[in-house]
Amino acid sequence: MKLSYQHTVWACNFGFISQAVVNNLAPLLFVVFKEQFGLTDEQLGRLILMNFGTQIVADILATRYVDRIGQRICAVAAHLFCACGLILMGVLPFALPNPYLGLCVAAVLYAMGGGIIEVMVSPIVEALPGEHKEKAMSMVHSFYCWGQAAVVLISTLLLWRFSQGMWRLLPIGWALIPLANSVAFARVPLMPATPESERTKIGTLLKSKAFFIAILMMVASGSAELSMSQWSSLFAEQALGVNKVLGDLLGPCAFALCMAFTRMMYGLHGEKVAVDRALALSAALCIVCYLTAVLSTIPFLALIGCALCGVSVGLMWPGTVSATARRFPLGGTAMFGLLAISGDIGCSVGPWLTGVVSDAMQSSAWGASLMAQLSLSAEQLGLKAGLLVAAVFPVLLLVCALIRARQNRV
């Protein structure tokens, strides 16, 4: 059977699903890791930092070498990295004397794959024939959200049905998706890369004020999205007192579904929306959602804040990427790589900072005083404080979106 560019789009869709698996499976197991291996919040946050820190390294390498090695070889290798890392996530913690070391090794491997996928999929989609690139980009990015929702829903229900002691089988099962998609990318048609002589030079990009604003927006977008999505499961269970199944379904699962809905709607009707205005409104809503989740004394209302945060962050990443691609149409893989690096810096720093603040608040004298005044446990106060600090990132995005909207009017 001769494969078409529609098959290429579906391979890209499953590429984002593969990335969703490697980014969102481990946080669902944070409670298990704390109980089974005795990890602290800072160690859990360090796992997230290691994941996205490795993705940054992968982004840098991909930015430099993908066009030289070839898109197809790199896409296949990326999915194999993801599959190997996921399989080892279920094996190494029990094969090594230090379980945390096993989790770290697995995270580095699957993060290498996730980082390369992130750099490659957007330019592949952008290069395909067709109009309304912003819509196409948002639609393909929505599959990251559908993948995230599927990971949360299926994993949570399996853990509930078969007990948390069976968690090691989850990553091995999820590894089948990137494994199968590696075969797909070996066969689907790909558009030729932009010739090097025609690409916008990296130096030219870095000297542009518009591109610098885009970099800041990607950092803020990654931080705003991942700080909530990575910690919402633990936040719901320990800070809000909700049981794990309900907390996962109303927290990270609802977050992912709301984010998917936003991206899908923009993918269908995006030509009617001014992206800069939409990004500013998204940032404002995100601030409200963070404050609602942290400050509300009603658990259900706080969970609504977590879920609706998915609506607010849904357009941030793909909207910034697509608007920047429109501003620099010959940026090539290097431009997408720089944007991915910036986004992954945010994805690393935001969740890690949340964990650091949480641990610091729990162990400080000021934190002990606040616990007594607010009648909160150490875990409740720590996680609320961590997410409150993370609210600075949507504030940064709002400022950048307003600056860029003003620049575009001039």
Automatic annotation (TrEMBL):
Main location: membrane
SUPFAM superfamilies: MFS general substrate transporter
Gene Ontology CC, one term: plasma membrane
Molecular function per GO: transmembrane transporter activity
Membrane topology designation: Multi-pass membrane protein
Keyword annotations of the record: Membrane, Transmembrane, Transmembrane helix, Transport
UniProt cross-references to InterPro entries, sorted A to Z: MFS (IPR011701), MFS_trans_sf (IPR036259), MFS_Transporter (IPR051788)
TM spans (from-to): 74-94, 100-121, 142-160, 172-190, 210-229, 249-266, 278-294, 300-318, 330-353, 381-403
UniProt KW Transport keyword: yes
UniProt cross-references to Pfam families, sorted A to Z: MFS_1
Localization per record: Cell membrane
Nucleus in keyword set: no
PANTHER family tied to this protein: BYPASS OF STOP CODON PROTEIN 6
Family of this protein: Belongs to the major facilitator superfamily.
Protein name: MFS transporter
Organism: Candidatus Ornithocaccomicrobium faecavium
